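BUG-618 | component: ligand-complex export | severity: low

The export step for adenosine monophosphate jobs runs without errors, but we want the raw record kept on the ticket for reference. Input record follows.
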Amino acid sequence: MAKIGINIATGSLQQKEMIVGIDLGTTNSLVAIIHPESRKPVVLKEHDGNALVPSVIHFGESGIITIGNEARDNLITEPQNTIFSVKRLMGKSYNDVREYADFFTYKVIDDDTESLVKVQVGDKFYSPIDLSALILKELKTRAEHILKTSVTKAVITVPAYFNDAQRQATRDAGRLAGLDVLRIVNEPTAASLAYGLGLDKEEVKTIAVYDLGGGTFDISVLRISGGIFEVLSTHGDTYLGGDDFDRAIVQHWSASLGITKDELSLHKNLLQELRMIAEKAKKYLSSNNSFTGTVAGQEVELTKRELEQLAQTFIEKTIQCCQHALKDAQLTTAGIDEIIMVGGSTRMPLVKKMVTDFFGKHVHDTLNPDEVVALGAAVQADILAGNNKDFLLLDITPLSLGIETMGGLMDVLIPRNSKIPSRAARQYTTQKDGQGQIRISVYQGERDLVKDNRKLAEFSLKGIPGMPAGFPKVEISFLVNADGILVVKAKELRSGVEQSIEVKPQYGLTDEEVERMLLDSITHAREDMQMRSLTEARTEASQLLYMTRQFIEKNSSFITAAELCDTRHGMFELENLLENGDKDQVQAAIEKLNEISRPFAERLMDQAIAVAMKGKQL
Ligand code: AMP
C-alpha cells in the first residue's frame, strides 16, 4: 500500500526542532522542555537552580528594563515603575479591572473605559501584550542561554476560563517576543498531561484540577476521552491565594506586637519585612510544627495549628468553589476520577487534607506544584513536534479536508473546526464507460477550486472492473484519528476493490498560513461561488455531450435524420460555449440539447418497456 507522509496539523514540525513549553504565570513564569535523552519533561533552571522567573518588569531610570528577581526587588521602592500581575490585565478594558484598581500600584490608565487597558510608565504607554511580550522575551533569552540553541517555537498555557480575546492577547505577546506560538493550552490540561493523564487514548476520565497559587485560585473539571480534553466547568476566585495566608499572619503578629494598621501603612518597610517573614513562616510550617523568627528586633512565633486556624476560612472558600464547579459540570465528588494539585500553596498540608476530604480521594501531588503546568506544556510541545506519535496532536481540524471532483472543484468531506477524531464518507462514480481506475486527490483548504487549496496527497484506485459510466459505486472515506493523521480510503463497493493512504505529520502549516488561507477564502468567496457554478455547468455539459455522443452512436436506428441534424447542431452550440460561455449560456445550451434529445430518448424508453412487458400478464 502506498503511503505518503504529509502533515495536516497546523504547527507540527520537523523533528529536530526544540519546542518549549511556557507557563506564563501571574506571579511566576517558567519554561520546560522534554529532555532529549531521558525523554522526561524538565524545567529549565539557571545556575543557581532557580526555575521560577517572577513575572515582574522594572523600568529603570536610564531606560534599562529588568525582568524577574531583579525587577521584583523594586516592587516596594519603585511601585510606579515596577509592573506585576500583568496576566490579570490581558484582554481587559479599564471597566473590567476598575473594581481592583487599588491592587495595581502602577498606573493603569482609564481615559477610555471601553478600550483595552494600557499601563503608563513615565511618559510611555504599554499594553498588557507589550508587557507580557517582555516577560516572554526574557524567558526565550534565558532558555536559549541554557539550551545553547535558538528557541523560536513555544506552547504557552493560559487559564481554562480565558476567553478568545485573552488567548489571542497571549498569542500576540508570544509573536511580539519572537516566538511562534504553536498552541495555547489550558493550564489544567497541561497539569493533567504532566501526570500522564490523557496520554492513553482508550482512557475516559473526569479530572479535577485544583490550582491554588499566590494570588489566584482556580478549579477546573475536565473530561478526557479519546485523547481529547474537554473543559466541563471552571470556577475560582481571582483574588484568593497564598498571599491571603501571609496577610493573615501579618495581622496576627501585628496584633501581638501591638502594631496598628496606621503604623503599618506608614512604615512600608516594616510591612514588607513582616510579609517576607510571614511567607517564610508559612512555608516552613508546611513541614514543621512551629516557627520562630525576628522582625524589627522583636521575636515572632507561629505554630502550625495557629497557621491552620488563620488559613481555614480561605481554604473553605476554595472548597465552596469546588462545589460550584461540580454543580456546573452536573457531577458529584463520586464522578471525579483524579484530582491534581497545582500551585505553590497546595504544599500546605491543610490544603491537601481539606481537598482530599472533600473529594474523598487521594490527590496527585508528587510533581512540584509550581512546575507541573510548565512540565505539561513541554509534553504538549513534544507531541506537536511529532516526537510522540502515539498521542494526540489536534483537537480540531484547522482547515477543511476534501477531494478534487470534476472540473477541479473541492468537495469537502471534513469541514474545518471538526472535532477529532472525525470520520466522513461519500460515494462517487466514474465518468467514462469501462473506466478501470479513478484518481483521488486530497486537499486541505477553504477555497472552491482545488488549485487554490493545499494538496496533501494523491493516489489511484485501480482495478475497477469494466462497467458503464456512473455504475461503479466508489466510496471515499476520511478518518482523522486522534493523532491528527488523516487516513483516506477508496473502495468500489460493487467489486470490493480498495486502496488507502495515510497522510501523516511531516511538514506543517504555520498559524499565519492557516490564517491567510482562511482570509483568502473570505475575500474570494464571491468569485469562488461564481467559478463553482460555472465549473458545475461545464461539468454537466461535458457529461451530457459524452452521453449524447454515445447514445447516437449506439441507437442510430431510433433517430430520424432531422433529429440527428438538430442534435448535432445542439451539441455543436454547447461545445462552442463550453470554453467561453458564462454559466447561464452553458445552462441554456444544456436545456436546449436536452429538449432536442427528449423525444427520441422517450421513444427508446417506451420501446424498452414494451420489450420488458412482452408476454407478461398484468
Ligand atoms: P504560585 O503562584 O503557584 O507560584 O504559588 C506561590 C504561592 O505558594 C505563594 O503564596 C507561596 O508563598 C506559596 N508557597 C510556596 N511554597 C510553599 C510551601 N512550602 N508551603 C505553603 N505555601 C507555599
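Assignee comment: Attached the raw record above. The pocket of adenosine monophosphate is lined by residues 27-28, 213-214, 241-243, 279, 282-283, 286, 343-345, 347-348, 370 (CB under 6 Å).
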